[in-house]
Amino acid sequence: MQYIQLNNGVRMPIIGYGVYLVDPSVTERCVMDALSVGYRSLDTAQYYENEAMVGAAVRKSGIPRNEFFITSKLCLSRPSYQRAKENVKGSLQRMRLDYLDLMLIHWPMGNDGEIWAAFEDLVKEGCLRSIGVSNFYPEQFDLLVRNASIIPVVNQIETHVFYQQRPMVAKMAEAGTAVESWGPLAEGLNGIFTNPVLTEVGAAHGKTAAQVALRFLTQQGIIVIPKSVHRERMIQNLDTLDFDLSDEEMEAVRGLDTGHNLEGWPSDALSYNPQDYRR
Q1: What are phi and psi of 266, to 5 degrees?
Q2: Distance between CA 180 and CA 159 in Å, rounded?
Q3: Among residues 256, 240, 231, which one has the least CA distance to residue 14?
Q4: Residue 100 pLDDT exceeds 70
Q5: What is the pLDDT of residues 164-179, one digit of tens each?
Q6: Catalytic residue set
Q7: Sign (positive or negative) of CA dihedral 258, 213, 54, 70
Q8: Residue 119: CB partners within 8 Å, gap ≥ 6?
Q9: Which residues, listed in sequence order, are joined to residue 160 by a DSSP beta bridge?
């Protein structure tokens, strides 16, 4: 496994297992499968309603807690400092964990400064090792960090070969914040699994189009959390760190960027022409 060193010194696996839209009735089984093939980074959220099942799989695995990197995300209808603290502790109770490796604000909620202050205090209390954000626009990110004592370690955003988020990736690099891709396989849209560019590049390495799409991101230091309920695909998604794309292959994949999101979360509010970022 390769790791990204976050801005607080904590190391995070560059590939994790995501459980978005994994039915709670099968989440525990899926997480156990993921752990059995080598995943140690797990990504859930309060909104997914499967935190408890992720925690159950972690306990049943018998793997020491310090080998895991576990992420969840906060969702609040009426955000405030106190409710943020209570809700984070609710996640810990549901998962039966003493701490989380990473907690994110799931999306901008309008009172993010108070939420962030609660996160910072929970870091001091030892409940959270790292804190970050998800689906934050550039201006929302700037507003949050203006009064922050801790800079977000991660901004988790829609990022894939068709929406490469190059302005946002550059902005986060300047801030020292890692980019984490949700939907790294574009949720299966745009014919990603049969795309001729990805398929041709993959053939040169004995890899699938999906594996090329994931490697394109991780080779740039972007964290990915692909989701699958099928064990064989979990293995394929993890088996993407044993090859490198050449400069020419990276350039070919860059040409797939449309500059537009596919999932309705335009977290890169900077409009741009992908051709302006060819390199």
Answers
A1: -75, 70
A2: 8
A3: 240
A4: yes
A5: 999 999 999 999 999 9
A6: 48
A7: negative
A8: 84, 88, 103, 105, 128, 131, 150
A9: 163
In order, the DSSP letters of 37-77 are: TT--EEE--GGGT-HHHHHHHHHHH---GGG-EEEEEE--S
Tokens 């306990």 — which residue? 59
The tokens of 88 are what? 């984070």
Q: Using alpha carbons only, what angle is made at residue 70 by residues 99 and 149, rounded to the nearest 5 degrees?
A: 65
Measure Cα distances from 183 to 11, 39, 67, 98, 273 in Å.
22, 17, 25, 29, 21
Whole-number average pLDDT of the chain: 94
Is the pTM higher than 0.85? The answer reads yes
Domains of the chain, earliest start first? 3-261 (3.20.20.100)
**Residue type present at position 172:** M
Of 46, 97, 50, 49, give the one whose Cα is nearest residue 69: 97
